[in-house]
Amino acid sequence: MKFKILDTKSKKDRIILSEEFVRKYNLSSDSVTLQIGQWSRTFPIVISSKLSPTNIKLPKREIPFTLPSSLRYEVKVEKDVIHLGPLIGLLVKRKDNFTSKSFNKYTKRLRNYKDINGIVFVCSEAGIDTDNQTITGYYYVQKNKKKSKWEKGTFPYPDSMFKRVKINTSLLKEIQYSMGNTIFNSRVFNKQKLWEVCSEDSQAKTLVPDTMRYKSYKDIVKMLDQHEQVYIKPTQGMQGQGIRRVKRIDGAFILTNNRSDTVVLKNKKELKRYCKTHLTDTNGYLLQQGISTAYKRKHADFRFYFQKNREKEWICQGVVGRVSKKNSIVTNYKHLSGLYSGKKAIKLLFGVTNQEAEQIIQQTTQQCIYVGDLIDQKIGHYGDVVFDIILDKNKRALILEINNRIYGTKSLRRLKKHKMLRKIRTTPIEYAKSLAGF
């Protein structure tokens, strides 16, 4: 049921409720606590026989933040607490530099707004006021199916928040203290943290390639004693930048970078010199076991898109298979020669039937859910991630990385996966509503 908020336009601090509302929610006290986001206050109530059952009158001059009357709200009533909402925040920037282009992007996430209701606002780190526990941002107003706009407003800390950017750690702790576990994608983590968490769990350890932190060229040599090829990956790397593959042939070390340039180092001494002059990222590097998946001399891997739904459960929204250009060691978008649905890519790689490909996807999905639950337990709270998966020659899935901040969707647009893309954009808002208690 949707409710319209009206102003009492009275100097008296009271809430006016319809007789039907009071009866429906079994309110017996002469006062109620109004909760909006993390803000609450107790008001006396007046029961009206003339007020529409879908209207609630509030003394707006006593509400110390923006509460648009143009929107429709839902209520959740427990005992004598009226929770009005949902109030959902999307933390999308560090600076308050919103543009028309960025608002268009956020609008795509609200195509299911008629099922969400309440206030959905976007904000930046700069808009958070910890002294007053408020956030200044822009809230969504849907005029009709084709027209909408974003209006500036100031709100209390919300019921739930979808965090899309990395912010100051002390600030995050401050808002988490007030909001509890209702901020998702709460902590950004890298490949090293994923490895550390998985390596401590007997089942998860089997789902990631052998990995170690790079300290010196000796670590590369040590890993090559155990594996045919090793990948050197920047700890904080994105989109394949800075990745190198190392192979050892007849005592020489063959290094290939993400641009497919190759360097031959004749011995350990040359390898040591190369590492000293080229591996200079201050954030450090990881060494990861290379998994051979060559398809016509092309590298292949998979993206599994995972989100939590209204039931707060992990679901796989879809799978994309990515095949690199010939001899390329990475599969990010600009280095691709082919994109396929996950099932088709598996059939191409392994020559299996449709049913066998589906079984591989289902098995991998369950393994990803296991690791998804694990990172929820050990790192933070997540609701929107992408697993980068590689299948070895025995069709065993290994997790290369979990993209837990911002990931691209060009592959989905190129494959014309419009329905899947819409689900990926809108599902986090549905999850946020569920977290909010509505």
UniProtKB/TrEMBL annotation:
This is YheC/YheD family protein. It comes from the Bacteria. It comes from Bacillus mesophilus.
